[in-house]
Amino acid sequence: MTTYYDIPADMLVPALAEKLSETKGIEQPSWSDFVKTGADRERPPTQANWWSIRAASILRKVARKGPIGVTSLAQDYGGSVNNGSSPNTPGVASRHIIRTALQQLESAGLVELVPTKEIESTDGKQQLYSGRKITPAGQKLLDEAAHSCRDAANEMYPGLAKY
């Protein structure tokens, strides 16, 4: 069976975005037409389906990197901030976009929070989480998308056939 490890990301993410656009609960919010994807960007995205592409990419990263949080994902999607004559510094992506996409993926049952420990505070007991991980339903969706684009991947990259 083909897994998402066998297919390159540039082929897997669009196929997964198509499947996610058919999934109930993953829809582009109304405010997303007017926002930039990071502080280092100059304009909002121009693709019509950029939300489902970003959600598919986030789902793939959550599956590959295990329990991962919003801050780590924001650093992964960030670019570099132009500081003029000073050296460029790393920029982070919009955490609100990533958080909203993760919440949608979580409500669709594709990712879940990973609890670490419970602490006692002045407000009572609070649960701490180490990030989000993929659920079996999310794994199945990823593997189905990978299997659907396996033939195209074998044509484009002939060396993949031996895996």
Written overview of the protein:
This protein is α+β, with helices and mostly antiparallel strands. The protein has a single domain (9-25, 48-80, 88-162), classed as Arc Repressor Mutant, subunit A (Orthogonal Bundle), CATH 1.10.10.10. The protein is built from six helices and four strands, in the order αααββαββαα. The strands form two sheets. The chain has a two-stranded antiparallel ribbon. A two-stranded antiparallel ribbon has the order 3-4. The longest helix is centred in the middle third of the chain and has 16 residues, at 50-65.
In the CATH hierarchy, what is the class?
Answer: Mainly Alpha
Rough outline: globular
Separation, N- and C-terminal Cα atoms: 10 Å
Uncertain stretches: none
Biggest sheet architecture = 2 strands, antiparallel
Average residue-wise pLDDT: 90
| Strand percent estimate | 15-25%
Query: How would you describe the oligomerization state of the chains in this entry?
Result: single chain
Give the % helix: 40-55%
**How do the SSEs run, as a string of H and E?**
HHHEEHEEHH
- Provide the CATH architecture: Orthogonal Bundle
Widest sheet: strand order?
A: 1-2
DSSP summary, beta strand count: 4
Q: Tell me the name of the CATH homologous superfamily.
A: Winged helix-like DNA-binding domain superfamily/Winged helix DNA-binding domain
> Roughly how many Å is the radius of gyration?
18 Å
What is the name of the CATH topology?
Answer: Arc Repressor Mutant, subunit A
Which structural class matches the secondary elements? Answer: alpha+beta
**Number of structural domains:** 1
Determine the number of helices (DSSP H or I, runs of at least 4 residues).
6
